[in-house]
Amino acid sequence: MKILPYQPDQSGLAYSVGTTLDRFIKLKQSDFPFASGELSQLLRDIALASKIVNRETNRAGLSNIGGAFGQTNVQGEEQQKLDVIANIRFIRALSKGGEVCAIVSEEEDAVIDLQNKSGKYVVAIDPLDGSSNIDVNISIGTIFSIYRRKTPIGSPIQEEDIMQPGTEQVASGYVLYGSSTMLVYTTGFGVNGFTYEHSLGEFFLSHPSIQAPKNGTIYSINEGTQEEWNSGIKEYIDACKSANFSARYIGSLVADFHRNLLKGGIYLYPATQKNPNGKLRLMYEANALAFIAEQAGAIATDGTKRILEIQPTSLHQRTPLFIGSEIMVTEAVEHLKKHQFSIK
């Protein structure tokens, strides 16, 4: 019997498809000796649910699941049909996985207690960010944060398990449903991005060790609200225009953040007269993206304080958000300081 050592193919006939998300998670499992595999399984549960939501979004124009659902969520915002579907899909996946004891969702008024006293983790999630863009085929996304519960395993869920600052996150990420579907996440050891290969049904590592540029030439803000801005914001945006920066604003937080993360830029959602506390939610939007931003070398602040250090006081607490390339965010904050954060 002849035995030959393995030699990697050099013919070029079969290209390498790369590392799958599942394999990557397993390789990194040693970063969390305390987790015993539960965190890895939780990330896989989220990935599975995102594949299902991706399927639903791709067929939204054909299956009558686009458009408004006819109800409003706790934010007072009109729910889209896919909002409801995505919420159900993620809650179902997280409840069946067995690693999660409680869920905070944008679409739910109260904490969802899964009655799983052995669950070690709490998940805060925006199941479908930017859902008002579904009907016009613009990129949307999912945003999630993962925390370890504080109370002993086996005991009922308490407020301290839920109301944790962003510094306590053990993982966070987002899924972008766009021209390609991507899952980007961090566990505190850098940021990695995975692109979904539809024919194989797998996420493959496509953007390893993402690092945000220190500076950029893109600013993302809803200029339709400029009459309600602080004078410092107006001054900073005028400076961006004078420098011939590009204005890029999609209206889907995940999409705007993702572009600026890769290309360099700043996303601004300041306090306004209408929303003096800001509009974006701290627990399942700002915290998750701030964790990713910092792990990629970027900055996230509410204008006065690091986002991750804000102690939440309510489930659906809102916050201003300035997030992106270090130099751009620092300059924006300097303009704010000069005008003492007054809203005109």
From TrEMBL:
Main location: cytoplasm
Keyword match Metal-binding: yes
Keyword set, alphabetical order: Carbohydrate metabolism, Cytoplasm, Hydrolase, Magnesium, Metal-binding
Record GO cellular component, one term: cytosol
Record pathway: Carbohydrate biosynthesis
Pfam families: FBPase, FBPase_C
Binding site residues for Mg(2+) 2: D126, D129, E285
Residues forming coiled coils: none
Enzyme Commission code(s) on record: 3.1.3.11
Cofactor(s) demanded: Mg(2+)
NCBIfam families, per database record: PRK09293.1-1
Family, similarity comment: Belongs to the FBPase class 1 family.
Known partners and oligomeric status: Homotetramer.
Protein name (database record): Fructose-1,6-bisphosphatase class 1
UniProt source species: Algoriphagus iocasae
